[in-house]
Give the backbone structure.
Amino acid sequence: MRAATVAAGALTCAAAAMVAAALVTGGGKEEERAASAPTPEAAAARAGKAVWVANGCGSCHTFAPANAHATIGPDLAATLKGVPASYIRESIVAPSTAAAPGFGIGVMPEDYAERIPPAELDRLVAFIRAGVGD
């Protein structure tokens, strides 16, 4: 009988410790929500990739984050690494201002400033910038 009482007491203590830990940590639900909720960066990248696809960027450019392997335009990860977002934006809306080495001016359409709304352009630039790194 004494062994059963000790075992029951140990189980009660263990259960109490688990309840206390769950109360202190929120039962792990907050961590689960944080792990499953997309970060703002991930959400922006997903939205930027949608703009990339909608505008056919991958039909001309190589860009690994978009699984694009075209060769008409430059590989964006190679030519845009470390450049500021303002340069990426300018390259999209006024592509004739500069061309990547080995690529001519006048190949990329000049009307993306009219075709892509500003908020979508921001998402596209963020997607490209995140994909090329610093």
Observations:
- Confidence is low (pLDDT under 50) at residues 1-25.
- The beta strands are 62-63, 68-69.
